[in-house]
Amino acid sequence: MDPERKRRLFEALVQMGFKEIEVGFPSASQPDYDFCRMLIEDDLIPDDVTIQVLVQCRAALVERTYEALQGAPRAVVHFYNSTSELQRRVVFNQERSGIIDIATSAAQLVKKLEKNAGDTQIHYEYSPESFTGTELDFAIEICEAVMDVIEPTSDRKLILNLPATVEMYTPNIYADVIESFHRTIRDRDKVILSLHPHNDRGTAVAAAEMGLMAGADRVEGTLFGNGERTGNVDLITMAMNMFTEGVDPKLDLTDIDALRRLAEYCNRLPVHPRHPYVGDLVYTAFSGSHQDAIKKGLDAIGADPEHWQVPYLPIDPKHVGRNYEAVIRVNSQSGKGGVAYIMKAEHGLDLPRRLQVEFSKSIQHITEDTGTEISPVALWDQFEATYLPEDAPIQLISHETTTGDKSSRITAQMLIDGAHATINGEGNGPIAAFVQGLSRELDLAFDVVDYSEHAVSAGSDATAVAYVEVKHPNGSVCWGVGRDESILNASLKGVISAVNRIR
After folding, report:
1. Strand (E) positions, 404-473?
2. What are the b/e assignments for 174-187, b being 16+ CB within 10 Å?
3. pLDDT for 369
4. Which of 197, 259, 189, 272 is nearest to 234 (CA)?
5. Cα–Cα dist 443/16, whole Å
6. Which residues lie across from 123 on neighbouring strands?
7. Considering the entire predicted model, what is its pTM?
8. For residue 329, what pLDDT is reported?
9. What are the residue boundaries of the Pyruvate carboxyltransferase domain, all occurrences included (predicted)?
10. Of 381, 402, 427, which one is at a domain's C-terminal end?
11. pLDDT at residue 331 is higher than 70
12. How many structural domains are present in the chain?
């Protein structure tokens, strides 16, 4: 990661609310050293933020680390060495005593060099790396040996960090080990017990959560689980899990898409579309039954807006800066609920249930033929072509209506198959009168069996939409839709739309 990306990531972490930020490995990397110096010399570290630097338990590297920290207001010096049985045997060819000597020698050096740190407030963190492959009794022994050197107090605690450098067992076993360490380590009130889970088994978040319940105080992780191999624990997922349980994580996650874009830019790696809470598809339902349940849940929110209770959506997407527009998307698995939701959310049309069923069938044919999902724009194009075609064979030009005490009469000017026609009708209302006249003109018997209408917008420029279901003598039924600034005109156009489709 180049300095510009590092700086953007650091500033974002500060803005999110993180108070301890590991900024690099300055003794092992010149870019990390330079970045550490830039933060200090350019006064980029807020008063309530502490930077942390990583260093192996090697004298030359420890000395270089303190050079990088000169002038910092505060810093955590995080020193570590590997302690697992495998690495003792294969990598270091050392007995336990030799590994303890490596850790305590480094502890002595970091404490000695603190005297040359000027006004920098130094705090210490020690990690028995590969803790999950280390015998628990030895992990406690080496940590207590480091404590003997550092001499932590209740006011200046030592961070003991227990890395699951490689995940080696299930989260419940990990939690048992953490609890045993928590209960056994001496001077527990002088220790901050920290977790550092990796994700080799895909359970880093679960392990971290159970580790906290087992007695840990602190978790080290990354945004969206970036890190070596399968990555570190994802702090965003952890924070959002807390949020869903009613616990404030004290992090600003109100624009989670911006955080994702930043992480992708800085890490040059994509975040998976199904990554919890942030992926493109995590608030999206394609399944018809899911869509129907989500639609009904969103409709019910109006009665109890204080409590989020929507099936399949554990949080309100708006809490992380997302919206409902992409909650429901339509493919071949989708049913009427998904189609109806998009027509209402995107286009303001509240389709009657039987119209939902009718229209969704035509959409399913399209998605099955193409094998892809259909966009809201394409959905509208299909709806318009089906119910609101501009070149329909029957069109309304104008009409005059008179209403008496018991009946209404209508005279309408029409285009029927390209020819001008005048129709006259009488009925118990304008729509019934129009149906009578049009039926006689076309020599087509049909009945209106359902009708509804609503306004699409409010105010003087409101548009009305009417939905009309008609039935042919042969038993077939179909729907028509009409739109107009006039409710009556919209209704008449709805009748015409249905008749155009049933002829």
Report:
1. 408-416, 419-427, 447-455, 464-471
2. bbbbbbbbbeebee
3. 81
4. 197
5. 71
6. 76
7. 0.73
8. 58
9. 1-257
10. 381
11. no
12. 3
Q: What is the DSSP letter of 185?
A: S
> CA torsion sign, 326 to 330 to 336 to 339?
positive
Secondary structure string (H, E, C) spanning 247-311: CCCCCCCCCHHHHHHHHHHHHCCCCCCCCCCCCCCCCCECCHHHHHHHHHHHHHHCCCCCCCCEC
Q: Summarize pLDDT for 429-474 with one digit per residue, the tens.
A: 999 999 999 999 999 999 999 999 999 876 667 899 999 999 988 8
Residues 335 and 424 in one domain: no
Q: What is the CATH number of the domain that holds 62?
A: 3.20.20.70
For residue 276, is it within any domain? no
Beta strands in 62-116 (DSSP E): 74-82
The CATH code of the domain that includes 426 is 3.30.160.270
- The reply to whether 232 and 330 lie within a common domain is no
Task: Give the residue-averaged pLDDT of 191-212.
Answer: 98
How many degrees, rounded to 5, is the angle at CA 384 between CA 383 and CA 385?
A: 95
Q: What is the DSSP string of 101-160?
A: HHHHHHHHHHHHHGGGSTT-EEEEEEEEESGGGS-HHHHHHHHHHHHHHH---SSSPEEE
Supply φ then ψ for residue 34, to 5 degrees. -65, -40
Average pLDDT, the chain: 93
Q: At which of 381, 402, 435 does a domain end?
A: 381
CA distance to 246, 299, 345, 354, per residue, from 303 (Å): 21, 8, 18, 25
Domain range for 321 is 288-381
